[in-house]
Design a protein that fits this description.
Layout: E1 2-8, H1 13-22, E2 29-35, E3 42-46, E4 49-53, E5 56-65, H2 67-81, E6 90-95
Antiparallel strand pairs: 1-5, 1-6, 2-5, 3-4
Length: about 100
C-alpha cells in the first residue's frame, strides 16, 4: 500500500475529490494547513496597514491506496490540482507497512 499526501490550493479540493472519485477512490482525509515554499513571504495591505504574510493557507489531503492504484491516483491529483502558480504539485508518496482499523464488536 502507498500513502499519498498532497498540498493543494483551497479552491482545488472539490476538483481533486471529484477526480479521485471518477477513478474509484472514494476515501481521503483533508486538513487545513499553512505553509510556504519558494513563494516565501510577501507583504499585503489591510485597512491601511501593511503586514507580512509568512504562511499561506492550503489543504493537505491524505489517502492510502493499494500499490497498483498509486500511480493513477498521483497523476489524477496532479492534473486536477494544477493552477500554474508556484506551490502546485506537491505530492509525497510513502510505503505503508501496515494499516489497522478499530471496529466496534
Amino acid at each position: 500500500m502507498k500513502k499519498i499526501e498532497a498540498i493543494i490550493q483551497l479552491s482545488k479540493l472539490d476538483e481533486v475529490q471529484n477526480a479521485l472519485e471518477e477513478i474509484g477512490i472514494d476515501g481521503m482525509t483533508a486538513c487545513e494547513v499553512k505553509g510556504f515554499g519558494r513563494q516565501n513571504r510577501h507583504t499585503e495591505i489591510y485597512r491601511s496597514g501593511e503586514y507580512t504574510v509568512d504562511f499561506l493557507p492550503k489543504i493537505r489531503i491524505d489517502l492510502v491506496v493499494v500499490d497498483q492504484n498509486a500511480e493513477q491516483a498521483v497523476k489524477v491529483i496532479i492534473k486536477s490540482m494544477k493552477t500554474d502558480k508556484i506551490g502546485d504539485n506537491k505530492v509525497f508518496i510513502s510505503n505503508v507497512e501496515e494499516a489497522r482499523c478499530a471496529v466496534a464488536i
